[in-house]
Design brief:
Blueprint: H1 14-33, H2 36-47, H3 53-129
């Protein structure tokens, strides 16, 4: 039952132990400070060596993608609004046509009633003379 001595390899791994402790503290700090979503971004930065080149490029790419999506959304919205305005104008024109046709038909019906009354009067007058 020999217990391994930690002092045997301690001088050789002193620098390695410091790095391990620093990495552990950094990981613990990340877990305490960063929410789950931002942990992934920190891991990516760590993979690039902390230069931030990858995340800067990713941010620019995300911003470009956002603006392209935003512009496309605006264009589609403008097209839909234009189409709705076109439909409203077309509907109004059709309603104007129908209302003018109804007014014209109303005038024709009134004229036909007048002619019917005149014919009835004429028939009543001619029937009385016989």
């Amino acid at each position: 039952m020999e217990r391994p001595s930690l002092e045997i390899n301690l001088p050789d791994t002193h620098e390695e132990g410091k790095l391990y402790v620093v990495d552990s503290l950094n990981n613990l700090n990340k877990l305490n400070v960063c929410p789950d979503g931002s942990q992934h971004a920190l891991d990516e930065e760590e993979d690039t060596g902390g230069t931030g080149e990858n995340t800067a490029g990713s941010n620019i790419r995300n911003q470009c993608l956002f603006f392209v999506t935003f512009i496309l959304t605006l264009i589609v919205s403008l097209a839909l609004v234009s189409f709705v305005i076109f439909l409203i104008i077309q509907t109004r024109n059709k309603m104007d046509q129908i209302s003018s046709r109804l007014i014209s038909e109303k005038k024709n019906i009134e004229e036909l009633k007048k002619m019917n009354n005149m014919i009835l009067k004429h028939l009543n007058q001619s029937g009385i003379k016989e």
